[in-house]
Design a protein that fits this description.
Number of domains: 1
Helix content: 40-55%
Order of helices and strands: HEHEHHHEEEH
CATH superfamily: CinA-like
Largest sheet: 5 strands, mixed
CATH topology: Maf protein
Shape: globular
Number of helices: 6
Strand content: 15-25%
Strand order of the largest sheet: 2-1-3-4-5
CATH architecture: Alpha-Beta Complex
Radius of gyration: 15 Å
């Protein structure tokens, strides 16, 4: 685990515990790294409700109990789709916050024409935000970590805004 992700996960864990809040994760190309970063903190059960890797269309429908037609309609608007998945994760696990990531780690692009190094991250909760990440890199592992770090940064921003 990169020290940046571990540090962000530790800080987020402490902030969530202090606030008495919880988080649920639905991630795709990060393959569980967001959840792992949050779970690396001792006492994570106080705030981590659960997570899933929604790498395939089938997983997105079955694990998030998504509406097949709604998911299909949102497929072209990745930012809104990421927001939908963050909301579903939050709702299904009754968490304060939901966070999702949908991306193309590489080394090749997606069948939909997106290049490697592109990801959409969403947070849903008291403050909701979506962000698109462009690394310009086709290195799969590097992108997975950069997407993870960006997702943790976005959650931290939302937590700070909600507590302000």
């Amino acid at each position: 685990m990169t020290s940046t992700a571990l540090g962000a996960g530790t800080a987020l864990g402490e902030a969530l515990k202090t606030a008495g809040q919880s988080v649920a994760v639905a991630e795709s190309s990060t393959g569980g790294l967001i959840a792992a970063s949050l779970l690396a903190v001792p006492g994570a059960s106080a705030y981590f409700k659960g997570g899933t890797v929604i790498y395939t269309a089938q997983a997105r429908i079955e694990l998030l109990k998504g509406d097949r037609e709604e998911v299909r309609a949102l497929r072209k608007d990745r930012a809104r789709l990421a927001g939908y998945f963050a909301r579903r994760a939050r709702e299904l696990l009754d968490a304060t916050w939901g966070i999702s990531e949908l991306g193309i780690a590489g080394p090749t692009g997606s069948p939909y024409g997106d290049p490697a190094g592109r990801s959409w991250i969403a947070v849903d909760g008291p403050v909701s935000r979506t962000r698109q990440i462009e690394t310009g890199d086709a290195d799969r592992e590097a992108n997975m970590w950069r997407f993870t770090e960006s997702a943790l940064e976005l959650l931290a921003e939302c937590l700070r805004e909600a507590s302000a």
